[in-house]
Amino acid sequence: MSKAHVTVSAAEFNRGVEQASMGRDNLLGMLESCLCAAALVGSLWVIAYIYEGDIPPAYLLLAVLTFALTFPGEPRLQASKAGSLLDIGLNWVWIAGLLGITGYATGYVKQFDRDALIAWLWAAPATEITLTLGLRLAAPTLMRLNGGKQRALIVGMNEQGLALADKLKSSPYSRMELVGFVDSRNTERLASDASYPLLGKLDQLATIAQQSRIQVIYLSLPMASQPRILHILDELKDTTASIYFVPDMFVTDLIQGHPSAVCGMPVISVCETPFRGANGAVKRLSDIVFSLGILTLIAPVLLAIAAAVKFTSPGPIIFKQRRYGLDGEEILVYKFRSMTVTEDGGVVTQAKKNDSRITPLGAFLRKTSLDELPQFINVLQGRMSIVGPRPHAVAHNELYRKLIKGYMVRHKVKPGITGWAQVNGYRGETDTLDKMQGRIDYDLDYLRNWSLRLDIHIILRTVRLVAKDQQAY
User: Fold this and answer.
1) Could you tell me which residues are beta bridge partners of residue 153?
2) Rounded distance between C-alpha atoms, residue 239 and residue 242, angstroms
3) 324 beta partners
4) Whole-angstrom Cα distance, residue 248 to residue 233?
5) What are the pLDDT digits (tens) for 141-160?
6) Which of 32, 87, 173, 255 is 20–30 Å from 440 (CA)?
7) 333 - beta bridge partners?
8) CATH 3.40.50.720 fits 150-251, yes or no
9) Residue 301: how many CB atoms within 10 A of its CB?
10) What's the rounded mean pLDDT across residues 54-73?
11) Is 295:372 a contact under the CB 8 Å cutoff?
């Protein structure tokens, strides 16, 4: 992806969460993973004792559901305090909303004392905030209890090696003390950084590791260097250092790169959907909850717009157009008709400013994005998501897939009513290849860095922008 187009990346938005993970193999990381569940479940039990004098079965079941939704918790220690507080608030709104809707839908909410539930709505996030701030204060002591710093070196002073070094250096809770780099290349060929010393060459690695008491070695070498890597591993058998590979992430443009295994063989995904397993369930559930709530609220608006479209111009109320959906399969997308034509053939002309095909009512609907409202039905059908890459007409897909590298990767997820590109200025007509390239850059950035927090952020920005956006025709 061309970084020149994405001025504010999804990775930067998610930075606080993304950088915070320290793994679950140390005391601080384990406590962090348990913190959210402990805060919510613990506060629920305290409230139950205060209001019920005991923990009735209904509260135990609610505790189990809460634990299942919150364990393991999101890593927040290395995020800013403001970022942590915002994330805790958004996470609690989501969890409380989901539990509340489930309770009312099943009638199970009647098993609880109303005052107890209201008290828990306030006590739960307050407890989590208190424990999070307390863990921040206790972190230095816990780090010392977990053992001293581990001396580490990186083999390969290249782009990904320096990126790893920067992360180790900037992390206040890292157990790694970076001693330096080892690399055999000439100085002019190195992506060198004066703040990190070059300790020697590859043929000296075993000796350096022994003399410098190195405990962890990161191999940051190109994938094409297999014989050299095997030789290094053989030399390091004479040391007690733990050895890790740093995959050459710059060989290709990874989309949701994750370690995995196929028949016991370790692999790293190069292009994958972010909505696997639990993430897929969370995404689908959030789509259903949000779309049902929104459709219930806007039902009178839908009826009024349908009547207005019917009586102000001839033609159907709903415009159905073939678009590409998940995995490049064709889907039918619903919109209120805003033009005098309903093009859906091999050639589709994008709407332009002052387009004569747009009806007077259609101009208003498009400007305010009210023509998109029927797509919440597409979301309920499972054809679309509320947030995702905007679906393009099939004719446009066939054109741009030949002109823009990686264009079809955006179809690894369901198309959305709104998206990361749209809230970053790429809403409306894409009359140049550069504009379409910019839209695709943001779509792929979204795929790489998806989070529920990012989805909520996009929805809120859409609400703010849609009334004043002047780019859609």
Assistant:
1) 180, 217
2) 9
3) 330
4) 17
5) 777 666 667 889 998 888 88
6) 87
7) 321
8) yes
9) 11
10) 87
11) no
DSSP state of 391: P
Q: In 383-454, at which residue ranges do the beta strands (DSSP E only) sit?
A: 385-387, 416-418
pLDDT band (50, 70, 90) for residue 389: very high
Beta strand extents in 169-214 (DSSP E only): 176-182, 198-200
Is the C-alpha dihedral spanning 6, 10, 13, 19 positive or negative? Answer: negative
At 249-270, the pLDDT tens digits run 555 566 777 666 554 555 566 6
d(CA 379, CA 430): 24
Q: Which residues lie across from 321 on neighbouring strands? A: 333
Asked if 468 and 414 count as a contact pair (C-beta separation under 8 A), the reply is no
* Tokens describing residue 162: 């320096």
User: Rounded distance, CA 22 to CA 32, Å?
Assistant: 9
d(CA 223, CA 204): 21
10 Å CB burial of residue 17 (0-12, 13-18, 19+) is buried
Measure the CA–CA gap between 254 and 233, rounded to whole angstroms.
Answer: 26
Q: Residue 209 and residue 246: Cα distance in Å, rounded? A: 18
In single-letter form, the type of residue at position 230 comes to: L
**Structure-token pair, residue 269:** 């995904």
Residue 317 CA: distances (Å) to CA of 299, 303, 418: 15, 11, 22
> Taking each helix axis from N to C terminus, what angle separates 114-145 and 27-52, rounded to the nearest 10 degrees?
150
Rounded distance between C-alpha atoms, residue 187 and residue 296, angstroms:
65
Name which of 129, 33, 119 is nearest 88 in CA terms.
129
Sign of the four-CA dihedral 375, 376, 381, 387: positive
Integer Cα distance of 312 and 174 in angstroms: 65
Task: Tell me the C-alpha distance between 157 and 145, whole Å.
Answer: 32
Domain coordinates in residue numbering, the chain: 10-145, 150-251, 277-466
Query: What band does 105 get if pLDDT is binned at 50, 70 and 90?
Result: confident
Place of tokens 């007077």: 360
- Alpha-carbon distance of 424 to 417, in angstroms, equals 15
Give residue for tokens 């709903």.
Answer: 318
Residue 322 dihedral angles phi and psi, to the nearest 5°: -75, 130
Residue 181 scores a pLDDT above 70 = yes
Spacing of C-alpha 411 from chain mean position: 16
